[in-house]
Design brief:
The protein folds into 2 domains: 2-91, Up-down Bundle (Zinc Finger, Delta Prime, domain 3), CATH 1.20.272; 117-158, no CATH class. It is 55% helix and 0% strand. It contains 7 helices and no strands. The protein has helices spanning 2-16, 20-32, 37-52, 58-73, 79-91, 97-111, 129-133. The longest helix has 16 residues, at 37-52. The chain is elongated and about 65 Å long. It starts with a helix and ends in a 37-residue tail after the last helix. The mean pLDDT is 94. Residues 17-167 form the MgsA AAA+ ATPase C-terminal domain.
Length: 170
């Protein structure tokens, strides 16, 4: 019932708050109470990106490995895999930079009125002669061919200068 969601919330917030002891407690409450370990592992995958993000990009690898380990061996053996992951996450630095930026992109899309801006011609793939004749891909600079980063716009003209890591400006 409701306690399922309460314990999930407590685990999430304990890891977010870097409290490894509370994190282990809530994990054990869930597992010993019969929670599906794969449910917990899926929540850890989400947590890795939502709360740790770029502060420790290996957190996502840890979460996916924990999920796979749980899938392979099941309970009760997988409890230590989840415990290791939960402690890792509680101790990990936290960053919601990507989570916020993606939320800003979604908000920008929701607030946009009218048709969405077209993909700039230079960013379009040109697998046919007709598309090449229409200008698809024309002027695109293939970054790996340059020693330095190239000056090139990747957003539609209407969004030029938008920085989703700050806020949606349009």
């Amino acid at each position: 019932g409701e306690e399922h969601y309460n314990c999930t919330s407590a685990l999430h917030k304990s890891m977010r708050g870097s409290d490894e002891n509370a994190s282990l407690y809530w994990l054990a409450r869930m597992l010993e109470g019969g929670e599906d370990p794969l449910y917990v592992a899926r929540r850890l995958v989400r947590f890795a990106s939502e709360d740790i993000g770029l502060a420790d990009p290996l957190a996502l690898t840890q979460a996916v490995a924990a999920y796979q380990g749980c899938h392979f061996i099941g309970m009760p053996e997988c409890e230590v895999i989840l415990a290791q992951c939960v402690v890792y996450f509680a101790r990990a630095p936290k960053s919601i930079e990507v989570y916020r930026a993606y939320s800003n992109v979604k908000e920008c899309l929701r607030m946009h009125t009218g048709p969405l801006p077209p993909v700039p011609l230079h960013l379009r793939n040109a697998p046919t002669r007709l598309m090449k004749n229409l200008g698809y891909g024309k002027g695109y600079k293939y970054n790996p061919m340059y020693k330095e980063p190239v000056e090139q716009d990747y957003l539609p003209e209407e969004l030029k200068g938008t920085d989703f890591f700050k806020e949606c400006e349009t």
